[in-house]
Amino acid sequence: MASVHKIIVIVGFISLFHSAFSAAQHRSYLRITSQEFTALPLDIIIQAVVSLFAVIWGVLNIAGKLREIPAANELNNIKWETQRNLTSFYVFNHRGRALAYDFVPTPSKEDLEKLE
Fold first, then answer.
1. Which of 19, 29, 89, 92 could form a disulfide with 47 if both were Cys (CB 3.0 to 4.6 A apart)?
2. pLDDT more than 90, % of the chain
3. 11 near 54, Cβ under 8 Å?
4. How far is CA 72 from CA 14, 69, 86, in A?
5. Is the dihedral of CA 108, 111, 115, 116 positive or negative?
6. Is 51 exposed, middle or buried (0-12, 13-18, 19+ CB in 10 A)?
7. What's the pLDDT at 107?
8. SS (H, E, C) 32-78
9. What is a single cellular component term in the Gene Ontology annotation (predicted)?
10. pLDDT per position as a tens digit, 82-113
């Protein structure tokens, strides 16, 4: 059954290429005859859309069923407390403490020298 889908994809790509070539030919024809380009003919548009859907349908059927990535199995054995315990990222001296209602700024080096 997969060979039928592969044939559909190949025929779809050939048809898509043919519609692109036909569109280029149509533009060349319009330039040669000094006509203004307004839109592509309906048969080229229909061929391109049908070819695109054929390629999409064939590729989706060739790909098969999707499987779950088993990365979560390794995480199931790790305890919650140690899962993201990265002590190198602990920061205790940051500007968020200034938002506390009982914040008292630490004296700077210059303030300490003035007290002496």
1. 19
2. 44
3. yes
4. 42, 8, 20
5. positive
6. buried
7. 79
8. HCCCCCCCCCHHHHHHHHHHHHHHHHHHHHHHCCCCCCCCHHHHHCC
9. plasma membrane
10. 666 677 777 777 777 777 777 777 778 887 78
Residue 75 is predicted with a pLDDT of 66
Q: Which residue has tokens 């390629």?
A: 55
Residue 108, SS3 per DSSP: coil
Per-residue model confidence as pLDDT tens digits over 22-38? 999 999 999 999 999 88
Query: Which residues fall within 8 angstroms of residue 48, CB to CB, at 6 or more apart?
Result: 16, 19, 20, 23
Answer whether 16's CB lies under 8 Å from 52's CB.
Answer: yes
Angle at 57 (CA atoms; ends 54, 61), nearest 5 degrees: 135
Quick check: 4 and 43 in contact, CB under 8 A?
no
For the chain, give the mean pLDDT: 83
Buried b (16+ CB within 10 A) or exposed e, 77-94: eeeeeeeeeeeeeeeeee
